[in-house]
Amino acid sequence: MAELPFFVYGTLRPGEHNHDLFLRGRTESEEPALMRGLVLYDGPGYPYGVEEPGGLVAGEVVTARPEAYDALLRELDRLEDYAPGDPRNLYERVEREVTRADGTTVRTWVYVAAPTVAARLRTRGKLIESGDWRLR
């Protein structure tokens, strides 16, 4: 499995409560970025990214320190209630491309709503129209 950076769009962003709990001191870099093909829904209290053509979400590309990567990946999977192949997942960890502020692109891991959660959000969820959790 590739050691990709993470795209974070909610409570793991700098200044949000899970950033300090999980990321502080464990990253090499954190850069603003945009992900196309994703929209945000209010959890409430945290967002769900739902894959949708035409969507655009603001967040950060977080590159973990190499020595922290494996432990951080396990902890983020647990935080996001993700286990490979588990039908009870709230989120799925998928590989997607994002665009940095300088226009370059990078492949990242991103946690998106699992299919059953995404279907429910599309019919009854509260869309965060700005695509930015901080502006909700």
UniProtKB/TrEMBL annotation:
InterPro entries found in the cross-reference section: AIG2-like_dom, GGCT-like, GGCT-like_sf
UniProt domain Gamma-glutamylcyclotransferase AIG2-like: residue ranges: 6-134
Keyword Cytoplasm: no
CDD domains (alphabetical): GGCT_like
Record's keyword terms, sorted: Transferase
The keyword Methyltransferase appears for this protein: no
Protein name in the entry: Gamma-glutamylcyclotransferase
Native species: Streptomyces phyllanthi
